[in-house]
Amino acid sequence: MANITKKVSWSSRGDEAGAAWEGTPLLNGSERPSVSRQLSGERRLFQIGRLSTVDLDEEITAEEDSTSWKPKEIPHNEKLLSLKFESLDYDNIENQLFLEEERRMSFLGFRCLEISRWVVCGLIGVLTGLIACFIDIVVEKLAGIKYQVIKENIVQFTEAGGLSISLILWAVLNCAFVMLGAIMVACFEPIAGGSGIPQIKCYLNGVKIPRVVRLKTLVVKVFGVICSVVGGLAVGKEGPMIHSGAVVAAGVSQGRSTSLKRDFKIFEYFRRDTEKRDFVSAGAAAGVSAAFGAPVGGVLFALEEGASFWNQMLTWRIFFASMISTFTLNFFLSIYHHKPGELSNPGLINFGRFESETMAYNFYEIPLFIAMGALGGALGALFNVLNYWLTIFRIRYVHRPCLQVMEAMLVAAVTAAVSFIMIYFSNDCQPLGPDNSEEYPLQLFCADGEYNSMATAFFNTPERSVRSLFHNPAGTYNPLTLGLFTLTYFFLACWTYGLSVSAGVFIPSLLIGAAWGRLCGILLASIAQADSTWADPGKYALIGAAAQLGGIVRMTLSLTVILVEATGNVTYGLPIMLALMTAKIVGDYFQEGLYDIHIKLQSVPFLHSEAPATSHWLTAREVMSSPVTCFNKVEKVGTIVDVLSNTSTNHNGFPVVVQVSDNDEPAKLCGLILRSQLIVLLKHKVFVELAQSRLTQRKLQLKDFRDAYPRFPPIQSIHVSQDERECMMDLTEFMNPTPYTVPQDTSLPRVFKLFRALGLRHLVVVDDENRVVGLVTRKDLARYHLGKHGLEEMHLAQT
């Protein structure tokens, strides 16, 4: 074993991360260890664009280190990339064990595997649909009880006086539910906070996010989102459904639960990252399908937002999972509503049907729809900027669980207070229709037979509010009511997203957009009173909702199809698409999408679809990590244990070379082996001496590696005696003999394309004689991005 080359590592691993940021505390509040460098030759400097120059030889002296202090806040720098995130192994390790198993498998065996994949996708759809059904029924029941209690209280005190008691009751009920949800997230499973879509995007991009697809995460997510929605926060339950579907997929496809320590001995072949990730993309699609009743939209969401790698059979299986998910939700909701067999409620959010006859649009309205898209993009960018600064504030100051719970309760109380005040001071009274379509009509100070219009927007679950804005007849809402509602709900939704509660941003975005879209429709109708085409403001509410949601999350293809499927009318496909495209173009000019912002704030090494535009002048030699730790084909056990135990260089992939020379010259590559494989080999004590002395020793199989997946034991838990350290280990049978390699002069875009398209974790850089000179990992590529001053490089931190 040796270090192959003396070249400086630009991508520097854990022990090198502190050099560029001396004395800067990390995101978790801990201070950096002092870093000492001993490099041969001259001091080396590196600069890209206008980033500050990083001196790689700089040392932190003991005096400087002792003067650093631990602040009350946690500083945050978005130019950092976290080293705590590892990549998934999407590429199959084609070692001798794998090839022998594939050769032994008959044609019938492969057919059975294919059938198993379809069965798993069907199970994913059924379970995701059942979870959606459970969330929907529980939210409806609890919200119904809450609003009925508050309504009776308001009716009682409107006549007798003392409405402040109703306000206190409303605020206390909201705080109680939200406190429960926030405690579950902040204290038990923080990864279950938010919508979960950024984390699933990262997982499907190839980043291993810790704890993101655990059973505990699913339980906290489901009960957390119920508490958030019932607690009256400006949130939706649709976003978390995507995360829930992904967790279900990850669990079902493995045929066991590591959390419950139960192994059902099924689907063992799928216990690897390649298969698991495909199923997780199916689960995310099933989640979208259950949430919006949009199976095609779910497939396109998985394609657009998630999976980096795609094939035709995967598309068909994902569509199958999505369709089963929608059907399951439909079936059980029809039984719940005492209409068994009537499958007309496609998803959790039901926008109602838009009839083409009553809501036709003309060619000359298209420029208006585009203008609304631009407005949605601008408002979405404003929303994202405000939420970005708010999230940075939370990272710095609101990092203790007790503070996070208190903030969530504060937001719940303020939401109740603002809602109550808006309803109290609104004099927008509307007559109750003959069908009495309002769920909880509040009379307050209106005349008999009338209800308070502002209460329809605030005193309701967000889904019902969206439907009323889409379908209530013209004249139902006063322009002032809509304007005030848009303004207040915009800031409430912005404040709410990022709290330590399980909550989605889809429905609040649709609600804000529907409100100002309907307002635009009313204003247009008042300008052109003679023309009846402008009469129905519902279509403008729909376009406004699409524009606002597109402006915040910046999805185009999947969102168009989701909204078309949710409205049940393809007529509005073109206006929705134009509004979403315009919203994305305008929004991207100012700020990134909300999910991308939160991914960046978590310092995740996320790889976008293409390398930065101006990076052709960079080569593999400049971006690779070196020196590289290599092993011989037959290596000493003590050497392997020492390398794996070295906490300063937490490498996960090791090139295997023909023979390591003593003079640190590069050696010829003959394979690649992973940390997880070496740990399994050490655990089973696969040593050359033992194999020779015990003829009956069982030969290691792929099943042993699959049984240890995905939570491989740490090296510290494996005991190796002093005598065993002197033994030798033959890696020939277990290494991947054909790893992907690139010459050292390959351009960065070419390396990036190969790495991302094949889903690699390690890419070996070789010279013209196939000798190892470096290793490219995800973090080496993710560091480069286009900033305001051209190509910039991020720094790495052990956060």
Describe the main β-sheet briefly.
4 strands, mixed
Structural class: alpha+beta
Beta strand %: 5-15%
End-to-end distance, in Å? 29 Å
**Unreliable runs:** 1-72
Q: From the alpha-carbon coordinates, what is the Rg to the nearest angstrom?
A: 29 Å
Mean pLDDT comes to 81
What is the molecular shape? elongated
Give the helix proportion (percent range).
40-55%
Please count the helical segments. 28
CATH class of the largest domain: Mainly Alpha
Just name the CATH architecture of the largest domain.
Orthogonal Bundle
Strand order of the largest sheet: 1-11-13-14
Q: How many β strands by DSSP?
A: 21
CATH fold call of the largest domain? Clc chloride channel
Number of domains: 4
Assign the CATH superfamily of the largest domain. Answer: Clc chloride channel
Describe what is shown at a glance.
The chain is of the alpha+beta class and 799 residues long.
How does this model look, in words?
With 799 residues, this protein is an alpha+beta fold. It folds into four domains: 6-87, no CATH class; 115-336, Clc chloride channel; 363-428 and 462-601, Clc chloride channel (Orthogonal Bundle), CATH 1.10.3080; 620-779, CBS-domain (Roll), CATH 3.10.580. The protein is built from 28 helices and 21 strands. A hairpin with a 2-residue loop joins strand 19 and strand 20. Helix 9 packs antiparallel against helix 18, helix 11 (366-397) packs across helix 17 (538-553) and helix 14 runs parallel beside helix 16. It is a multi-pass membrane protein. One of its GO terms (molecular function) is chloride channel activity. Residues 1-34 are annotated as: Disordered. Residues 735-793 form the CBS domain.
